[in-house]
Amino acid sequence: MPEGHTTTYHTSRQLPPSAIQRVPPVVRVVGIVAVLYVFLCSIGLMGSGFKSMGRGFAERLIEATSNPFVGLFVGIFTTSIVQSSSLTTSIVVGMVSAGSLTVRGAVPIVMGANIGTTVTCTIVSLGFIGRRREFRRAFACGTMHDLFNLLCVLLFFPVEMVCQRAFGVGFLEWLAGQVERLFVGAEGVTFAGPVKLATKPLIHAAERAVRAVLGEGAAASWGQVALAFAVLFLCLWSITKLMRSLMLGRVEAALDRTVGRSAVLGLAVGLVVTAIIQSSSITTSILVPLAAAGIVTLPQVFPITVGANIGTTVTALLASLGGSPAGLQIALVHLLFNSSGALVFLPVPALRRVPVALACGLARITARWRWFALVYVAVLFFLIPALLIFLT
Q1: How far, in Å, CA of 322 to CA of 13, rounded?
Q2: What are phi and psi of 222, to 5 degrees?
Q3: Could you give the CA distance from residue 111 to residue 72 in angstroms, rounded to a whole number?
Q4: Is residue 16 part of a domain?
Q5: For 317-335, how does the pLDDT look when each residue is reduced to its tens digit (9 = 90+)?
Q6: What percent of the residues of the chain are helix, what percent strand, and what percent coil, each to the nearest 5?
Q7: Is residue 5 part of a domain?
Q8: Structural contact between residues 109 and 88, judged by C-beta atoms closer than 8 angstroms
Q9: For residue 63, what pLDDT is reported?
């Protein structure tokens, strides 16, 4: 490793502690458990709200997402706005569990969310736009995640559509269904019964509170969904903050020790770190300044990025604990889709170089015409998805 590599981390650890870092670690761990419980309750409350909206709403929503291209761009656009695939996929799990969205309709949304979540890392790279050489390296690091997920969608989305037409079921949908059956319905056992039992009192209390304020009918249903969405967003934000305060120093040290050692080790670190801090954006964004400074190279960063892609699926799996078998199935689709991308691109050096080469080429363009970086973010993540959703 070049000199100064570890100094970067030591400098960050010497910064004054934030307010949350002054809280004892034990209290923060208890806080994480409490927030996770409320998070699971918010998923259940959202599902209850969708169910109470009635069959007509569910049919209209399913019809709107029956076009897989619309679902794909909905996933991109929604996740680009909220900058969190965890939030998008958790909402999708809740809707599928409630029967408001089919697994088949949700698959493209999950794929699109994988693209939308990469906008954060790319935006972070724009912070170096004033320094041409650093910006070129930072933008390449940021967009490598974009391009990898785009390549995965370009590969697996057509396969899913072809399988649906040929066999009546998509490949990922079918495979996730097979895995889901290992956990659900075996000899009458229902998945996650204890979780449902534990979250039911708080969900029912929230339902009664909403009805007391808004009365019965559609207003109460929408009120439940709105409350669940707000609590879900707050819980994910809180979990990320708490986990980051507990683990960020360890995360940086782990990256310091493993970057460039081996592709498998990088994959494992990216996976574990992201599963712990519940945010692939944080994992990949940490790497952008290091790439900008020339401390790490794109081939060294790529396996960690792929691992982060898999680690971010943990949130949807957690969200499915309090839901239905269909909710678990779509969470498994997310896991299998991201894992399949790793299996295709990471083991073969020639394929591993493709997203790296594309990112370097795009960075060369933006280093020459830096305004193009802003156009790239606006067009890919917002204008194209919004326009295609509107037109269809």
Answers
A1: 38
A2: -65, -35
A3: 6
A4: no
A5: 888 876 678 889 999 999 9
A6: 85, 0, 15
A7: no
A8: yes
A9: 56
Q: Which residues contact 392 (CB under 8 A, 6 or more apart)?
A: 67, 69, 70
pLDDT digits 0-9 by tens, 214-245: 887 778 888 887 888 788 778 867 776 776 67
User: Going by C-beta distance under 8 Å and a sequence separation of 6 or more, which residues neighbour residue 341?
Assistant: 148, 149, 151, 152, 155, 156, 306, 309
Q: How many residues does the chain have?
A: 392
Q: What angle do CA 226, 228, 229 make, to 5 degrees?
A: 65
Please check whether residue 11 lies inside any domain of the structure: no
Residue with tokens 């370097």: 360
d(C-alpha 319, C-alpha 321), whole Å: 6
Low-confidence ranges of the chain (pLDDT < 50): 1-15, 58, 186-192
Cβ 301 vs Cβ 287: under 8 Å: yes
Token digits for 153?
């969608």
135: region left, alpha or beta (phi > 0 left; psi from -120 to 50 alpha): alpha
The pLDDT score that the predictor gives to residue 188 is 38
- Amino acid in position 207: E
Under 8 Å CB-to-CB from 116, ≥6 apart: which residues?
75, 76, 77, 78, 79, 80, 85, 88, 381
Q: Please state, in angstroms and rounded to a whole number, the distance separating the CA atoms of residues 377 and 122.
A: 8
Residue 126 lies in a domain: yes
Position 353 scores a pLDDT of 92
Say which DSSP state 188 is in: G
Give the H/E segment covering residue 130.
Answer: none
CA atoms within 13 A on the CB side of 182: 5
Number of domains in the chain: 1
Range of the domain at 358: 29-391
Which pLDDT value is given to residue 291? 86
d(CA 229, CA 91): 8
Residues 6+ apart with CB under 8 A from 90: 39, 43, 232, 236, 315, 316, 319
Q: How far apart are CA 353 and CA 345, in angstroms?
A: 9
Residues 96/56, Cβ–Cβ less than 8 Å: no
Say if CB 131 and CB 121 are below 8 A apart. Answer: no
Contacts 24+ apart (CB under 8 A), 350-354: 352/263, 352/299, 352/302, 353/299, 354/151
Outline where DSSP puts E strands in the chain: none
**Measured distance between the N- and C-terminal CA atoms of the chain, rounded to whole angstroms:** 51
